[in-house]
Specification:
With 233 residues, this protein is α+β, with helices and mostly antiparallel strands. Helix content is 54%, strand content 7%. Bound molecules: glutathione. Belongs to the GST superfamily.
Length: 233
């Protein structure tokens, strides 16, 4: 029996990535789903708060079971539908491949992401430049060595993996926002020279249709600019 899947989402999340991750996973797994767009510019309705009391997107309703938090939604889908995204566990080799993906995602979000965030929302030009330099330094030191065998995707995969599902929406924003005047250009200017593995991988990631099919660059840029302005007033 085909599962009944409903995704509560918003396509134009500003800087944050949550809902976009679920779209990438559903596209890769070719799962039909119903979509409900949640207006994030107004307080959440009582109906939506009954689905997700935190009021955030994404939420996934799977045969009536609600799953929230984007990483958990994506992990649920990858577990429920074994695929090219993630080897099932059960052997040490497959467990190692899973551990490698988890380590990459953890490294990206714990070591590099906080500096990018700081650069985008900095209160002064100096603070932004300092954070941008630290972002590039951490990418070079921590992330670059993990992408030496990307071809073009993680660990030599010819198809997207869970590593790209979890990071792809962020990679789109990393490459696009500074080009459009959000955050210092130094966030991305030196990436081809200093982090060639990362840059090659990131370029392949953002070109993948499952990653960019709901991407509206100008809308995300405008919303992120508005959010930065609001936080800095
Ligand atoms: N940790 C959550 C974060 C989700 C999140 O922040 N979603 C944003 C949109 S991408 C949201 O719902 N924002 C609405 C708000 O903050 O009121 C996840 O990964 O699912």
């Amino acid at each position: 029996m085909t599962a009944s899947i409903k995704l509560y989402t918003n396509h134009g999340c500003p800087y944050l990535l949550g809902a976009h991750r679920a779209h990438i996973a559903l596209a890769e797994l070719k799962l039909p789903f119903q979509e409900e767009i949640i207006d994030l510019s107004v307080p959440r309705t009582a109906e939506y708060l009954a689905v997700n009391p935190r009021g955030l997107v994404p939420s996934l309703s799977y045969n009536g079971n609600v799953i929230t938090e984007s990483a958990i939604v994506v992990q649920f889908l990858a577990d429920a539908y074994p695929s090219h995204l993630l080897p099932s566990g059960g052997t040490p080799e497959r467990a190692l491949a899973r551990a490698r993906i988890s380590f990459f995602v953890d490294t990206f979000f714990s070591k590099a992401h906080p500096h990018y965030h700081k650069a985008i929302f900095a209160k002064s030009g100096d603070e932004a430049e300092e954070a941008a330099a630290e972002f590039v330094k951490q990418l070079e030191k921590e992330v670059e060595p993990l992408l030496g065998d990307a071809a073009p995707y993680f660990a030599g995969s010819e198809t997207l993996t869970l590593a790209e599902v979890l990071t792809g929406s962020f990679i789109l924003r990393v490459l696009a926002l500074p080009k459009n005047g959000v955050g210092p250009e130094n966030l991305i200017k030196d990436l081809p020279a200093k982090t060639p593995n990362f840059y090659k991988w990131a370029t392949a990631v953002v070109e993948h249709p499952s990653v960019n099919n709901i991407w509206d660059e100008q809308k995300v840029v405008a919303r992120t600019k508005a959010r930065v302005a609001k936080l800095n007033t």
